[in-house]
Design a protein that fits this description.
Length: about 375
């Protein structure tokens, strides 16, 4: 299989679970530099830096994502970096210049995750208006169209509802051809339509196989209407242990030690965001308390067990059309090292079932893992 692997850059304090369980993970640059070099050495393809500006779910310290991503690119040779950015807090022309410069300096390794926004306070605290759900995605789509125009055209003019460009030029262009990869997430109809029209990659929160299949089919159909293709990535929290019972016990321990106040605060924010889409099916709209202890529903994806069990689960994800697995851990450096040495070789040795599933030759995949 040719599945690609990414990890969440812990550039925000508190780790990747909202729990008081011990986490040997640090948000500082020294730790992240060592982590990036470790991930690169054991076969990871991408690293995604989070965008946060104020504390949420206990994350009281944040290093800005584009700055962190550019710094990580200077201490690695192969790893592709994805910086997250919020339209509304940034002007697309400024971001286009920053990412083009970083891509040029890193010889084609800088990419962008466009986050339409779920955390209202992050906008209002900075004096920016909080738009209605679908309007945030309309703004993001314009944002991406401006990025692409500046990155690919000698001179770019744009007249939108949110942004205007007047014979704008950008040099040097990015090193990547045709431009840095553009990622986005979201579960709502507005998010899916936007992905089909303008994005290169569609990120999905943790889910069941059927949940992933439904999203993939929907976004693919939208992309086909515009003569495009989109790649798919899933979020997963990895608990890799010698036995399944040990992995399961670790999961129980994380949830039992959840930071109740922080989880409830996060739940209040994201429930409002998830249900604010017109159809009420945005991200987190059906997430349980336990799901939200890992703030992108990463437990649901099921990368919990022995190396062989996790590799088999990744084979199932590949079979339904997943191209990239975005991973998070309790103890990032040692667990990413173990994932790269124990699991990636197993995945590479497994056959891809994607063509067989697409052709109907494989009717059923292995049953879902045990529920959280």
């Amino acid at each position: 299989m040719k599945t690609k692997f990414a990890y969440w850059v812990p550039n925000v304090s508190g780790g990747l679970v909202i729990s008081k369980v011990a986490q040997r993970t640090d948000w500082g640059f020294g730790y992240n530099k060592e982590l990036a070099r470790t991930a690169e050495s054991v076969g990871f393809d991408y690293a995604l830096a989070q965008a946060r500006f104020i504390a949420s779910y206990g994350a009281d310290k944040q290093l800005e994502a584009i700055v962190m991503s550019t710094a990580l690119a200077t201490v690695t040779d192969r790893l592709r970096i994805i910086a997250a950015v919020h339209p509304g807090l940034w002007h697309p022309g400024v971001v286009a210049k920053m990412i083009a410069s970083a891509d040029y300096m890193s010889e084609g390794r800088m990419n962008l995750n466009v986050v339409s926004g779920w955390f209202k306070g992050e906008f209002t605290h900075y004096g920016e208006p909080w738009l209605e759900h679908d309007e945030r995605y309309r703004r993001s789509e314009e944002f991406i169209r401006v990025l692409r125009g500046l990155w690919t055209e000698p001179e770019f003019t744009f007249r939108g509802d949110f942004y205007r460009m007047n014979s704008a030029r950008l040099e040097p262009k990015p090193a990547q051809d045709p431009h840095p990869e553009i990622f986005q997430g979201g579960n709502s109809v507005a998010a899916r339509r936007m992905a089909g029209r303008v994005s290169d990659w569609y990120f999905m929160n943790g889910n069941s196989l059927d949940g992933f299949k439904e999203q993939i089919a929907d976004v693919r159909a939208e992309a086909a209407l515009h003569g495009r293709t989109v790649k798919f990535a899933v979020n997963a929290f990895v608990i890799n242990r010698p036995t399944f019972s040990e992995a399961e016990e670790q999961l129980r321990d994380i949830i039992a030690n959840a930071d109740d106040e922080a989880v409830k605060g996060f739940r209040d924010a994201v429930t409002q965001a998830g249900r604010s889409s017109k159809e009420g099916k945005g991200m987190w709209s059906d997430s349980s308390y336990k799901d939200l202890v890992q703030y992108n529903d990463g437990f649901k994806t099921g990368l919990i067990g022995t190396p062989a069990q996790i590799a088999e689960r990744i084979q199932q994800l590949d079979a339904i059309g997943v191209d990239l697995v975005l991973t998070a851990y309790l103890h990032f450096i040692e667990e990413i090292d173990a994932f790269g040495r124990q699991i990636i070789p197993l995945v590479r040795a497994l056959p891809s079932l994607r063509d067989a599933v697409d052709a109907g030759a494989v009717e059923e995949l292995t049953p879902e893992p045990i529920a959280v």
